[in-house]
Amino acid sequence: MFLEQCRFIYLFVGSAPMQLMIKFANKAYSTPLIYIEMEATKLKYTIIKNRDQYDKYCKNLEELLASAIDESVQDEIDLITLLIETYDEAHNTFAELDPIALLRSFMAEHHLKPQQLVEILGVGKGYVSDILNYKKGLSKEVIRKLAAHFKVRQEAFNRPYKLKIAVAQSELNSGIINQSATQNTARH
């Protein structure tokens, strides 16, 4: 009977009050039916629907990451990250590019030079050069660092691609040197 006398119930979700109206209706067998009408609250973040919204959320994420991170900020970071990743998966053009072409496109988009990539990855200039020229593959650590820096999933860089295997002149010479050294030791 108490519920039949109630017209409004106030609930507090976070800090925003939400008003619920409860209406009762009697049907056959005197069974009360409850209808709940809720006031709509505006969400701070929604599913990303276009590139402008995507760019705005990426900017918000960067600002949050630069701020002091406490538990509430971490929840917001997690939510924005999830929304951005969901949009990326739905609008993924990464699958068309091999990891090195993708890396080169990110470098162009962010105006990065190979020397800056050396600093970001914490590796030598030669290794970065070999990566960009398809001579060496990406290590797990490099993949992690690239994904974190460009804010994409590791899978974007962790895909197979063909390396250009060039036979170095020193390798050719080493075969000749080793062969002649073996012949010399055989004589003695």
Structural description of this entry:
52% of the residues lie in helices and 13% in strands. By secondary structure, the protein is α+β, with helices and mostly antiparallel strands. The chain has three domains: 37 residues, no CATH class; 47 residues; 75 residues, Orthogonal Bundle (434 Repressor (Amino-terminal Domain)), CATH 1.10.260.40. A three-stranded antiparallel β-sheet has the order 1-2-3, with no helix packed on it. α2 runs antiparallel to α3. The N terminus is likely disordered.
The helix content is 40-55%
What is the rounded distance between the termini? 111 Å
Q: Which CATH top level class of the largest domain fits?
A: Mainly Alpha
Mean pLDDT: 75
Topology (SSEs and partners):
Blueprint: H1 2-5, E1 8-13, E2 16-26, E3 32-38, H2 51-66, H3 71-90, H4 99-109, H5 114-121, H6 125-132, H7 140-150, H8 169-187
Antiparallel strand pairs: 1-2, 2-3
Summary keywords:
about 190 residues; alpha+beta; 434 Repressor (Amino-terminal Domain); about 15% strand; elongated; disordered N terminus
Short description:
With 188 residues, the protein is of the alpha+beta class. The protein has helices spanning 2-5, 51-66, 71-90, 99-109, 114-121, 125-132, 140-150, 169-187; strands at residues 8-13, 16-26, 32-38.
